[in-house]
Design goal:
350 residues; alpha/beta; Aspartate Aminotransferase, domain 2; two-stranded parallel ribbon; 11 strands
Length: 350
């Protein structure tokens, strides 16, 4: 497997810990270990303090998977596999489902590994989101365009809502239409749902695909909506137990198992997830109106589309110097780190 340079992560490796103002993080604001443990009951705290520092189960500890399963409406722990973050899950899902004779479809723009990994395995097509226009003031996905991209050997469609980087949430009728389309053709859906639950208070999120589609793979992680990226615990839920089993066997070549302390902390966080999500959504509630006001003041320089969910948005810079030079000047002269849109440039076309 030959993979291209990961543009976003390369950019972060240069600037993420050097820039004074990191304005382009895709995760909700993190908390300290002590702050997280303050949510724990005495029994939960004792379980963490007294834990055994040995290997954990490759699937993930059963009680942790029970807590993860409680975030779903129809999934049990037997349909859940834990990973060392979400990226390992993306790698495992693509590697297990696809082979050189397959075809994959990826909604673009997207987190680069969703595109680069299938491209390294098989023929891959892009299904670009339609940008806001005079008729539609939101980013949207044309289901007919997705249908036109399907081939006899299409095995996987990858989506991501709330969307990275636009913050768009697919309308429920289009989501259901996409699931019906994939069910008709026997296509797996890998749904990157890492921002589910995050947005303005009261945001309506889509149901997890593993709850509503027998070939749906729900990818989630503690990093984004919960604001706990340092735990490095993610998971995939899927009703197709053969796929889950195959990913588990592949994980033997990857992380093998998760960090035991991270699993204990994940259990605490998920048991108190309502409080954690209320905290991160309150941060969005406070900051989003400030961005509205900022872009109103600078409408000559930016096109601004409010995100439907998550803590991300994808404004368009209209300055004559170009977005590459603009973001370069910002970080080098003022210490403000933003991502140029070119980082999300896709190599795919329909």
């Amino acid at each position: 497997m030959t993979l291209p340079d990961f543009r976003l992560e390369t950019h972060f490796s240069k600037w993420e810990f050097k820039a004074k103002y990191h304005m382009t993080a895709s995760d909700a604001e993190s908390m300290s270990l002590q702050d997280l443990l303050s949510y724990a009951t005495p029994e939960e705290r004792a379980e963490f303090d007294d834990m055994w520092l040995g290997y954990t189960e490759t699937f993930g500890a059963p009680d942790v998977r029970d807590e993860i399963a409680s975030t779903f409406t129809t999934c049990s722990r037997h349909e859940i596999l834990c990973f060392a973050g979400a990226s390992e899950g993306i790698f495992a899902a693509n590697s297990v489902i696809l082979d050189k004779d397959s075809h994959a479809i990826v909604v673009t723009p997207n987190y680069q590994s969703h595109e680069s990994l299938p491209l390294s395995i098989c023929s891959t097509s892009g299904a670009p989101l339609d940008p806001p226009n005079n008729q539609s003031h939101k980013w949207s996905l044309d289901i007919d365009r997705v249908a036109a991209a399907i081939k006899p050997n299409t095995k996987l469609i990858t989506i991501n809502f709330p969307h990275n980087p636009t913050g768009a949430i697919l309308p429920p009728d289009r989501y259901n239409a996409l699931i019906d389309l994939c069910r008709k053709h026997g296509i797996y859906i890998l749904h990157d749902e890492i921002f589910n639950g995050l947005g303005e208070t009261g945001t309506r999120h889509l149901p997890f695909v593993a709850d509503v589609y027998e070939r749906g793979l729900s990818l989630n992680v503690m990093s984004k909506s919960y604001g706990l990226p340092g735990l490095r615990v993610g998971w995939i839920a899927c009703k197709d137990k053969a796929i889950v089993s195959a990913m588990e066997r592949l994980k033997h070549y990857l992380s093998i198992c998760n960090s035991g302390p991270s699993e204990r902390l994940t259990k605490i966080a998920l048991r108190h997830r309502d409080k954690l999500l209320a905290r991160t959504c309150a941060i969005v509630d406070e900051n989003l109106p400030k961005w509205d006001a900022f872009f109103d003041r600078h409408a000559d320089l930016f096109d601004w589309q409010r995100p439907d969910g998550s803590c991300m948005a994808f404004p368009r810079y209209k300055g004559t110097d170009g977005v590459e030079q603009f973001t370069k000047n910002l970080v080098e002269k003022s210490g403000v780190l933003l991502l140029p849109g070119s980082i999300y440039q896709s190599e795919l076309c329909m």
